Amino acid sequence: MDELVVVDSCSTDATARVAEAAGARVVSQGEVLAHLPPGCEAGGGKGAALWEGLAATSGDLVAFVDADVSGFTPEFITGLLGPLLTDQTVAYVKGFYHRPLVGEGHTVPDGGGRVTELVARPLLNLYWPELAGFVQPLAGEYAGRRQALEAVPFVTGYGVEVGLLVDLLDLVGLDAMAQVDLGYRQHRHQDNEGLGRMSAQIITAALGRRDRQRQVVMTGEPHPWLAQFRRGEPGAVGVGREVVVSHIAVPERPPLAQVLELTKARPA
């Protein structure tokens, strides 16, 4: 049976009423698993809402989508579910898209997703290079098999997407993870304070997983390469993106006092 569930994450507007009028089943954050601390008061945030949405549904396949995206189409859902329905080896599907940055009187075609480019992508490239090929690691549109999703933790805040990528990589392996081109996505842009809080939560989630992995097995030095996705020419074959790989190692020079001391001690 297909289910359409909207998690009302402590909204103060008409979200619940509008969603119900459109035919969705609405559940309020903090009420799904009522024996746990209330989601809103505990600062549960996005990840907690997704986790409760998973608990409120029963289907074998679960798709998560942000409800505040402009220009949302049904293809977002069918695109995410397609690989899961056609390939039983796929356990998790991530969406990607072109995301513009809209300003006053101008638009940067792929200027959106600043936290992706400045925080999430460098972190994943450094410590989990297997995930470097994901175009939009922070995309809020993804789907997976319930068996896999119920086996991993959900970070309660904005680190949920990075947490899921890393944990599912450990659980199912890269070959069971896929991504689909959803075309175009327009979303509101946060100010620097909001982006700073988001970045801090993402860094916290990533480093927490890095620390746990260090306790299990010794890992090598950070991966010294960064893969980025440059917008291709209109009409380009495939996803219309060019992969740009840069070397980002930062070797250090020793303290100058040590060098000078060694120089003085060297025989003439």
Structure, briefly:
With 268 residues, the protein is an alpha/beta fold.
Write structural notes for this entry.
By secondary structure, this protein is an alpha/beta fold. The protein has a domain at 59-221: Spore Coat Polysaccharide Biosynthesis Protein SpsA, Chain A (Alpha-Beta Complex). Helix content is 36%, strand content 19%. The protein has helices spanning 15-21, 45-56, 75-86, 114-127, 146-149, 160-172, 192-216, 256-265, and strands at residues 5-8, 25-28, 61-64, 92-98, 101-103, 106-108, 142-145, 177-184, 225-231, 241-247. A four-stranded mixed sheet has the order 3-7-4-8. Helix 4 runs parallel beside helix 7. The longest helix has 25 residues, at 192-216. The protein is elongated, with a radius of gyration of 22 Å.
List keywords for this structure.
Spore Coat Polysaccharide Biosynthesis Protein SpsA, Chain A, 8 helices, alpha/beta, two-stranded parallel ribbon, 268 residues
